[in-house]
Amino acid sequence: MRQSEYHWARPQSWPLTVRVPLIAALLLIFVAVIASERVLTRFSNIQDDNLRGVASVYLDSVSLALEPFILRQDIWGTFDTVDRARNAAGDLPVRALVATDNSDQIIAADDPMRFPTGTSAPSALIAAPSIDDLSLKYTETTVWTQKDVVYQGQLIGHVVTEIDVGNYLRQRREALWSLIIGNTLATILLAGAGYFLISRMMRQVQVLSQFMGSHEGDGLEEIPHSAFPAKRTEFASLFERYNKLVRAEAERRDIAQRLSDQAQLVSLGRLSSTLAHEINNPLGGLLNAVDTLRKFKDRPDVVEASTELLYRGLKNLRDVSKATLDFGRSNVQDHPLSKVDLDDLRLLIEPELARKNQTLDLTIGVDDDTLRVLPGAKVQQIILNLLLNGSAAAGEGGGIGLNVTTEEETLRIDVSDSGPGLSEAARHRLTVGSASKNGAGVGLRSVREITQGLGGGIEVADLPACGAKITITLPLQPKGGFVT
User: Fold this and answer.
1) At what angle do helices 339-355 and 234-295 cross, to 10 degrees?
2) Of all residues in the chain, what percent are helix, strand and coil, respectively (each to 5)?
3) Dihedral angle over CA of 383, 388, 391, 395, nearest 10
4) Torsion angle in degrees (nearest 10) through CA of 81, 84, 85, 88
5) How many alpha carbons lie under 13 Å from residue 14 in its C-beta half-sphere?
6) What residue stretches are annotated with the Histidine kinase domain (predicted)?
7) How many angstroms separate the Cα of 412 from the Cα of each of 14, 372, 379, 446, 458?
8) Residue from 170, 183, 207, 12 nearest 93 by CA
9) pLDDT tens digits for range 359-404
């Protein structure tokens, strides 16, 4: 693909050297997101377990120490125990410690101004989760948790504490940013490495693509050995196979051209004997006219009649010979198709028709402006081959037809005959293109080759009564056609 064909708004048009690393990078990002989510989830669970474990040990010891004081409603003993427990929290960042009775009335707190004794505990303390339900939230820097104080199976109060979890959240943020930065760097590094490796791998593909796409319409060109990989790799073998394909295609084109020339010579050969006969016949009459002129040169009426006869006869011979010469020279320099070319076909085929006492039904329903986009010599050769084939099939006293019309931006050529129908061998030559071993069927194969070269199609049908009809359709913007 050439650079001008890339369009950054259409990802499907991007080169593989961009698409493959980009897809790999997207896959890496997808995997990194999933892996990061699992790592952060696992890290959060570990932090929650750690916090619950530390808080459980701390509150177990505090509740055990407060049990006798809460049971006796000893405010000063409870306050003293709470104050000492608050200062002995160690690594657990306790922000507040409150002891309540079983009716959620505050008995004592480490901060009496914030939580006065004898008042109802705030809703945050009452709704505080137990240690087993404790978990961190990204939106809260502190969490509340509580422990029941039980004496002989009876609930006598609660120990509620507020813990500063800012350090835990900071660790989570650090882990998150570490994952983001690490994954980003890894993705960029791997995408860059992928781009470099894919570019090296695709370099040979680009060479192949360049040679395959840079000579459209002019034939393929072999890849020079200087462009081959230095080492014996799969691409070197691929280049060699491509060069073999190019040589085979060149040979095929050469054979097709020689086949076309051969078909033209075959057509001319079939016409030559008939044309010689048709040229020889008028010569007798022309010689008689000359003898008449010699004998009656003093009679103006005889001279005028004989001169007119000579003019018509010589003009007819000139037209027949000119059409034959033009057809023979058609491959030297082609020209736009016109109605004159189609009229010349009548002159070329008439001697053959006269020899076999056949009729030609000719209908031309197009104008020169429509025909001029097609190459005249090639279309002439297609029609003449089909007319000669139809004449051979129609037999003595038969008839052939030629109808040329347009249909949906295509030229339609219908050639029919009154013969027994097209044989399977002839159908095969028209559709597959192979001639017989003795050279028969070259004309029909040439019809197929030229039609395909112009981007056209071929249809074969049997007529209801007898005979066959061959339909050639040629696009009016033909592939490899004639453009003026």
Assistant:
1) 70
2) 60, 15, 25
3) -160
4) -160
5) 13
6) 274-478
7) 42, 15, 11, 18, 10
8) 170
9) 999 899 888 888 888 888 788 878 888 888 888 888 888 899 999 9
**Residue 437: pLDDT band with limits 50, 70, 90:** very low
Q: Which of 416, 395, 413, 420 lies closest to 450, judged by CA?
A: 413
Cα–Cα nearest to 382, from 420, 413, 346, 339: 413
**What domains sit in the chain, N to C, each tagged with a CATH number?**
16-173 (3.30.450.20), 249-475 (3.30.565.10)
Which amino acid, residue 176? L
Residue 296 — φ and ψ, nearest 5°? -120, 40
Structure tokens at 260: 């076309």
pTM of the model: 0.43
Give how far Cα 17 sits from Cα of 13, 21, 76, 191, 208, Å.
12, 7, 78, 11, 15
H/E stretch holding 475 reads strand 468-475
- Two structure tokens written together for 418: 């009154």
- State how far the Cα of 328 lies from the Cα of 348, in Å rounded to an integer: 11
Q: Does 5 score more than 60 pLDDT?
A: no
Element (H, E) at 151: strand 142-151
Distance CA 294, CA 289 (A): 9
Contacts of 19-22 with C-beta under 8 Å, sequence gap 24+, read 20/194, 20/198, 21/191, 21/192, 21/194, 21/195, 21/198, 22/191
Record the tokens describing residue 155, joined without a space.
Answer: 């609930």
Q: For the beta carbon of residue 205, count every other beta carbon within 10 angstroms.
A: 14
Condensed to tens digits (0 to 9), the pLDDT of residues 300-347 reads: 887 777 787 677 667 766 766 666 666 555 554 567 888 888 887 777
